[in-house]
Amino acid sequence: MDSLREYTEALVDIDNKLLNCRHDSLEIREELLRSKKIFEQQAEDLTRKIAWITINVFSHVNYFLFFNFKTELIKISNRKNVVILSYYIVVFIVLFY
């Protein structure tokens, strides 16, 4: 997360430098644009990695919750307690759909 923050700060810094750059210094402007493109690519790659990690972690947590919840539903249905079963079915639908 610190790297993403650093990339974002670098992009803001480059944008400020581009605004303050003289129009007659094309080499500096081109180098700033090239640097901006590199930081944008790195930030995008890092964002994808963070998203991938987040999705995988939460999908495993949801699977664990789903499995435990399903087990409890089976236990309750075996006891034939319709009120509690219907309550848990509603909670199950809200949580996992």
| Helical amount | over 70%
Number of helices: 3
- Beta-strand percent range: under 5%
Shape: rod-shaped
Can you tell me the residue ranges where pLDDT is under 50 for at least 5 consecutive residues?
A: none
Q: What's the number of structural domains?
A: 1
**Overall average residue pLDDT:** 78
The computed structural class is mainly alpha
Distance between the termini: 30 Å
Using only C-alpha atoms, the radius of gyration works out to: 26 Å
The count of strands amounts to: 0
Give helix and strand order, one letter per element, not per position.
HHH
Main sheet overview: none
Description:
There is one protein chain. The model has no long low-confidence stretch (mean pLDDT 78). The chain has one domain. With 97 residues, it is mostly helical. Helix 1 packs antiparallel against helix 2 and helix 2 runs antiparallel to helix 3. The protein starts with a helix and ends with a helix. The protein contains three helices and no strands.
Question: Which characteristics define this entry?
Answer:
91% helix; 3 helices; mainly alpha; 97 residues; single chain
SSE order and pairing:
Blueprint (H helix, E strand, L loop, with lengths): L1 H19 L5 H54 L2 H15 L1
Summarize this, please?
This protein has 97 residues and is mostly helical. It is built from three helices and no strands. Helix 1 packs antiparallel against helix 2 (26-79) and helix 2 runs antiparallel to helix 3 (82-96).
